[in-house]
Amino acid sequence: MPYFHSRLEQLLGFYHEVNYEIHYEPERNVIQIHFQKTNGFSDWFANIFEFSGKYYDAFPFEGRPLTLNVHHGWGNMYKTIKRDIRSAWQALQEQHPGAETEIIGWSLGSGQAMLCCQDLNYNFGLRPYVYTFGSVRPFRAKKGEEQRLQRYLTGLYKDCRNFAAGNDIVTYMPPFKRFTMFRRANLDSTARTLLRLLNPWLYHTLYDRKELYTSEENNHEV
To answer: What is the model's pTM?
Structure first.
């Protein structure tokens, strides 16, 4: 789905695009939502240059307001599709009221998956299963609110496997204070080095290796 951040972008023909797919799996009685990875120059522009802004106004959590801030580019990306996703999910849920929901993404798509999880939880009370690979860090805590934001994020899902390789530099982006993600499930114990972090062509593309998932219990970081 193409979208523009401004009238100038529209006039220049510089558009962004976000792609997702939602379907029902009758064999497993599951509604699945998939989000696509970074795809093209405009996605990289959103990744690199468009940083944090207010996503929602403050809402009550633990007896006082919590303001949810996200990476500006990724927040705008999800906003363009959130109503369509809500409608599509509602329609499938009404047809299959006992179905669980799984949300899946890789790279930039993982950030969209986390925003989708928060959106469906906020609007419908849904606690889905979330499976992400090589995720970015889409949320940003206000100073002094880091632990409270993590407690809020942990309550959004039934279970989450946010798979991250230790030398995958994408999983530390943006590299600024107080940006965060859902809890990490560390896939390997390879020593982290600068040279490895600077090789995303290897460490950001290894998530299809079956041997990385031999253990159900991965070390988690918050």
So the answer is: 0.86
